């Protein structure tokens, strides 16, 4: 089985910190492959993730651990990557360690950022807006297109499932979260279109619920709107936030049952 996921890293002057490999996943020094056979080893010190990292890395780590997947990590700034970068990376890394084409290929679009969490009337930086949508929308389109083209060249029948990590914000407006809501809503519609364009591909927009991640810390401290900020603070204090592990467990079970309508938006609490 192939599993491909989007995870973002920055090297643009932001403060960064080294992110270790997750528990139970090993990064071999001899080749860029993680496996589940030797836990507790650190990723190389040269790999840097954003210090304000969002839920993407924590969520996909849980997918890899609970799913028992191996993976071949690639560090890339998704806000600046071009179509040719995705194509070259996929050709170089997809299928590493496998001698035959997979029976199933899963693509998780999990990378994303919360962005500026202030009122729309106060947004005045066109460059920052462009970078946000390059990371959260354009990169998704380019990677997905490159992935679909590559899969179409493989011999034999390959079951393809594309999972977009969505949010309640794709459906409901959150004050001072205009960028995030717009990005999530746009991605949901992109994958609804993919579902009707390619009926042979199984597409799911999965909202994982309110996860207890670094993104939540950012939301509780930086959100401009008092009501929204207080809501997230109360959820943390009352123990209402979910672990990535519990959400991923539901997602993988849901994917295995394979009873959803392709393109649907499904929330953690509906599974």
TrEMBL record:
It comes from the Eukaryota. PANTHER family: SEPIAPTERIN REDUCTASE. Keywords: Cytoplasm, NADP, Oxidoreductase. GO terms for cellular component: cytoplasm. The keyword Coiled coil does not apply. Transmembrane segments: none annotated. GO terms for molecular function: sepiapterin reductase (NADP+) activity. The keyword Cytoplasm applies. This is Sepiapterin reductase. GO terms for biological process: tetrahydrobiopterin biosynthetic process. InterPro entries: Biopterin_syn/organic_redct (IPR051721), NAD(P)-bd_dom_sf (IPR036291), SDR_fam (IPR002347). It is found in: Cytoplasm.
